[in-house]
Design brief:
The structure holds two protein chains of two kinds. By secondary structure, chain A is mainly α. Helix content of chain A is 72%, strand content 0%. In chain A, helix 5 crosses helix 11 and helix 12 packs across helix 14. Chain A is globular, with a radius of gyration of 22 Å. The relative contact order of chain A is 0.15. Chain B is mainly alpha-helical. Chain B is 72% helix and 0% strand. Chain B contains one helix and no strands. Chain B starts with 7 loop residues before the first helix and ends in a 5-residue tail after the last helix. Classes of the chains: A mainly alpha, B mainly alpha. Chains A and B meet through helix 12 and helix 13 of A and helix 1 of B.
Chain lengths: 390, 43
């Protein structure tokens, strides 16, 4: 082996590539098992528990954590907070990949994935909340693709098309906010039809409001979290503008997240009061509810506030991790843990290891795509030929 | 109130009473929290 080939071989077998490669190979095998053997071959889903972690994690968590796209673009283009402009492209990319992977995960979860387009072409089912979710996710994925495309077109050198799409930025941002408001809340509304299945502490007529407000928290926290990771692993790709603005983004988004978390804590307490569920707080489910409310809502709210007051960026970045974990816990609670809470433990759902494997596979695909795009396209820096043109 | 409701009217009266008091407390609390959050901004 020549010296050049040895260097190329060494650079290819990095720890990231090896781990990601193993996960992708296992994921492809599990994919083959899923689509040849059906859902029963790889999942613990049943008639009692038709929604497992492919919905609870891949879809509900995926959509919530992808909210950074509409939150950031609305801040910059609708509310005029231009000082956060450098966060837009990374947030849009995270959102675009998040939604694309949600759609990919849906192909695994639905029994007959080739029927996914049916709501649009065969039977509209306009009275179903799921129709609204499907329509909004499909439209918003298109919007995110268009919002992301200027970076890809700059990379490809397609200036005319890039300039044309850039002119649509404001319209696309408004579409994005409208569509996100609709489907983020509708994902909560899905559970309104199961008041007897969801534990009263999590069930509320305000579930759509809870889901929408938490999506804003998830979006703000994910931008801080993703910005921290990008700076650590792709710091060499960032231009001066991005490096200068990243602290300001953490402070500004941390402050916003703190206040939204305070509001969310308040409406959750009002939800308990409106249902007169105070007596349930002393039960085991009640204690778990309090863990979520105080450990993953009140605590990050307070820590964000202290971090912003003291300009403690390290605290803000760690708090973003707690807030993101809180969103994951909340979606798991609503979709899995507090759902079918009255069933005997023998009938309760616990994911099959292959379900977890597919979820890890899908997240890994997202990380690989993010890495591929960020290392090639102008996401964390401004393309020299288009600086100050957007 | 012994915790037993016989009519929807009783339930709504009790829960709305408590909720309205909570809302006033929350509005004052949110104002205080906002001051706590931004009071060092000028510095």
């Amino acid at each position: 082996m020549s010296e050049k080939a040895a260097v190329a071989s060494k650079s290819f077998f990095t720890p990231f590539n090896v781990v990601a490669g193993i996960i992708v190979i296992i994921g492809l095998i599990l994919t083959a098992l899923r689509f040849t053997g059906g859902l029963a071959a790889v999942t613990n889903l049943s008639d009692y528990n038709p929604w497992g972690i492919w919905i609870g994690f891949d879809l509900l968590v995926g959509v919530a954590l992808a909210a950074g796209g509409y939150v950031t673009s609305a801040s910059v283009y609708l509310f005029g907070m231009k000082r956060y402009h450098s966060a837009v492209r990374a947030a849009i990319l995270t959102g675009f990949l998040g939604y694309a992977l949600v759609v990919l995960a849906l192909h695994y979860d639905v029994g007959r994935p080739w029927r996914l387009p049916y709501p649009f072409i065969i039977q509209q089912g306009t009275t179903s909340v799921l129709f609204e979710v499907a329509a909004c996710v499909a439209l918003y994925l298109t919007v995110l693709f268009l919002e992301f495309s200027p970076a890809a077109l700059e990379w490809l050198g397609m200036e005319k098309l890039r300039n044309l799409i850039t002119r649509l930025t404001l319209v696309l941002t408004i579409f994005g906010v409208i569509l996100s408001t609709l489907h983020q809340s509708s994902l909560g509304a899905l559970f309104l039809i199961a008041p007897s299945k969801l534990h009263p502490l999590w069930y509320s007529p305000y579930l759509p409001v809870f889901f929408f407000v938490t999506s804003v928290i998830a979006g703000l926290s994910m931008v801080i979290f993703e910005s921290t990771l990008s700076h650590r692993y792709f710091g060499d790709k960032m231009d001066e503008n991005h490096i200068r603005e990243k602290d300001q983004i953490a402070l500004g988004f941390g402050k916003a997240a703190s206040y939204v978390l305070a509001g969310y804590f308040a409406i959750k307490v009002i939800g308990v009061s409106a249902g007169n569920h105070w007596h349930l707080l002393g039960t085991s489910y009640g204690l778990w509810f309090l863990v979520e409310l105080f450990g993953f809502v009140a605590l990050p709210c307070f820590l964000y506030a202290v971090g912003v007051r003291d300009k403690n960026l390290r605290l803000i970045r760690w708090t973003a991790v707690i807030a993101v974990l809180g969103i994951i816990l909340n979606r798991f609670n609503v979709c899995l843990i507090a759902f079918n809470w009255h069933l005997p433990s023998s009938e309760r759902y616990f994911p099959h290891w292959m379900e977890i494997g597919i979820s890890v596979f899908i997240v890994t695909i997202g990380v690989i795509l993010y890495r591929f795009i960020v290392t090639r396209m102008p996401i964390l820096y401004e393309h020299p030929e288009y600086s100050d043109s957007h | 109130m012994d915790g037993t409701f016989y009519t929807l009217q009783e339930f709504m009266t009790y829960t709305e009473d408590v909720t309205y008091i909570l809302i006033v407390a929350i509005l004052l609390g949110m104002l205080g929290f906002w001051i706590f959050l931004v009071e060092r901004d000028e510095n």
